[in-house]
Design brief:
mainly alpha, globular
Length: 268
């Protein structure tokens, strides 16, 4: 039977405002909430991809869909909903615990960590968050992302690379700026996740946040070209082909060429 959500540990007054969210959600369970977002179906379609489960739960925690103190579904519930083995779900929970995102209490369940630290973002002198400009974002990616090729080739499973390939192919269906941006952001986020390196994975999560900024979204909307997107999408396929062949040099060069084109668009 599904439990109501969010169910929270009795960890004192630090819960306060989150209790109001629990009242707003009423009797909608965490399982149902995530199902409505398509999370379970997406993971089930990823061929048993543990990395995708980790990334999806981390994003749900970071964006507040799973609030601090919320009780997560059990390993059995997630396994049944996604088709993953319970050992795979247990390993994913262990990774999230290592990152300080969840806490497991014997006999009570697994909860979103109340003491979780938010990613520290640079601030202006006036105290407001300063996100990188689109140019700064692309400059960094042009230098950083090609270096992920070796880690992906060494650490990513065949299932993970197949999942990324399917995402790249799905980009053929994108016809509007927002569809192309969603596919593009997800594709590059999956590359960082596939490195199997927690530092690169955290960088990938941060870059995903930056891509949601008004400056980035406005630039993508105002300068969208279906012809340009077709070229980007084809380059995504070339990148995945090299990665699936375990070709470090080829995948690194494919990433460099792709990001050089992106950099030219921003500098345009």
């Amino acid at each position: 039977m599904l439990r109501t959500a969010p169910q929270v540990a009795n960890w004192g007054s630090s819960w306060d405002g989150l209790g109001q969210l629990a009242q707003l959600l009423g009797r909608v369970s965490i399982m149902q909430l995530l199902d409505r977002q398509g999370l379970w179906a997406e993971i089930a379609a990823s061929s048993g991809n543990k990395g995708r489960l980790i990334a999806a739960l981390e994003e749900a925690i970071r964006n507040g869909m799973l609030p601090r103190g919320a009780r997560l579904p059990t390993e059995r519930e997630i396994a049944e909903a996604t088709g993953l083995s319970r050992n795979t779900v247990r390993d994913a929970f262990s990774r999230l615990t290592e990152r300080g995102l969840i806490a497991r209490q014997v006999g009570r369940g697994t909860f979103v960590n109340l003491a979780m630290k938010e990613p520290e973002l640079p601030l202006h002198e006036n105290g407001q968050v300063r996100l990188p400009s689109p140019r700064e974002l692309v400059e960094f990616r042009a230098e950083c992302e090609p270096t992920t090729a070796m880690l992906i080739v060494m650490n990513a499973s065949d299932a993970e690379l197949m999942d990324i390939e399917q995402l790249a192919l799905k980009g053929r269906e994108a016809l509007t700026w927002d569809q192309s941006e969603a596919n593009d952001a997800e594709f590059h986020s999956r590359l960082y996740e596939a490195t199997g390196n927690s530092v690169f994975q955290h960088i990938g999560c941060y870059l995903r946040q930056v891509r949601r900024s008004q400056a980035w979204m406005s630039l993508k909307q105002q300068t969208f070209s279906l012809e340009r997107w077709r070229k980007y999408q084809q380059e995504h396929e070339l990148i995945v082909t090299a990665l699936r062949s375990r070709d470090v040099r080829g995948s690194r060069e494919a990433l460099r060429n792709h990001l050089s084109r992106v950099q030219g668009w921003v500098d345009g």
